[in-house]
Design brief:
- By secondary structure, the protein is an all-alpha fold.
- The two termini are 23 Å apart.
């Protein structure tokens, strides 16, 4: 259990520090960075699949071709999420992107209610309502919709909803998604090279190495997360989730000195209060569940 928590914390910490990596690639257009991330991620996950010898899932894909429709949809959502995040970071919106991942758990709960007909408990409803009010306040207070946060939270929430219904594991699913996304990505990279606009091999060794490394920074935290999810509780995963957006927020404020007005601070405080209510309620429910199991086993 402790190893699972450490692995989860490591995954979320790596995701939280990811802006440092994308900032180092800010001379490369976001769409080109996305294309490299996709292709090199596919190379890495194929090597991992070969090393593990785990190809039995391919038979399932062949037997259930309709399953690919789900993965086409999840691939589109993943591509939009990755592109939005890369653009946001390299364009000086790290704080806005952190808000998206702060509200993501509440968006996920709301999607479960709408599409999976899950029941919203009282304090979950309070948390979701408070978060919605905070987003509305940020919209009115700042004079613009926090679209970066909403796109990131929405695409990742719908992505999780689709992956919940897909019968493939994390690594296998990422293999399918990167394979699908690599078709247009590779074509785009080849076009850039033919037009003399490509960055790989033309912007220096450091940039080329960082582009290759996009596969590593994508796959490593995902594998840690997948292992942690099987070796620790959902409640623990839910609490540790906030490591990533907290690190992103700190980077945006302390390293990149992005503006953080009193109005934005008040809006964030509303979101944080909503998350506190949501997390506390989840912990209480987990304790009740464990107590009931203990009584039943006794």
């Amino acid at each position: 259990m402790k190893r699972g928590a450490v692995a989860a914390a490591g995954a979320y910490a790596l995701w939280g520090l990811l802006p440092l990596y994308w900032k180092a690639l800010q001379t490369v257009p976001p769409l080109e960075t996305l294309a490299h991330r996709t292709v090199w991620s596919l190379v890495l996950v194929l090597l991992l699949q070969a090393a593990l010898g785990r190809w039995a899932w391919l038979r399932l894909v062949r037997q259930r071709p309709r399953m690919l429709r789900t993965f086409v949809a999840s691939t589109c959502l993943l591509g939009v999420n990755w592109l939005t995040y890369i653009w946001a970071v390299t364009s000086g919106h790290v704080v806005d992107s952190s808000l998206g991942y702060f509200i993501n758990p509440l968006v996920t709960v709301l999607l479960g209610v709408i599409f999976l007909h899950e029941r919203l408990r009282l304090w979950q409803g309070v948390a979701v309502g408070l978060a919605a009010a905070s987003v509305l306040y940020l919209t009115l207070g700042l004079g613009s919709l926090p679209w970066i946060a909403l796109v990131l939270a929405g695409t990742f929430g719908f992505y999780g909803l689709l992956r919940k219904t897909a019968p493939l594991g994390s690594l296998e699913g990422l293999t399918v998604e990167t394979a699908l996304l690599s078709l247009p990505a590779l074509a785009y990279l080849l076009w850039l090279e033919a037009a003399g606009k490509g960055s790989f091999g033309h912007e220096g060794l450091a940039i080329s190495a960082l582009l290759v490394g996009t596969g590593v920074v994508t796959a490593v935290p995902l594998l840690l997360f997948a292992w942690a999810a099987r070796n620790t509780t959902l409640a623990t995963m839910g609490i540790l989730h906030y490591i990533a957006p907290t690190l992103q927020l700190l980077l945006g404020l302390l390293v990149y000195h992005e503006p953080f007005s009193p109005a934005r601070l008040l809006g964030f405080c509303g979101v944080w209060l909503a998350l506190f209510i949501y997390s506390a309620e989840a912990l209480i429910q987990e304790r009740h569940r464990r107590a009931a199991l203990a009584v039943g086993s006794g």
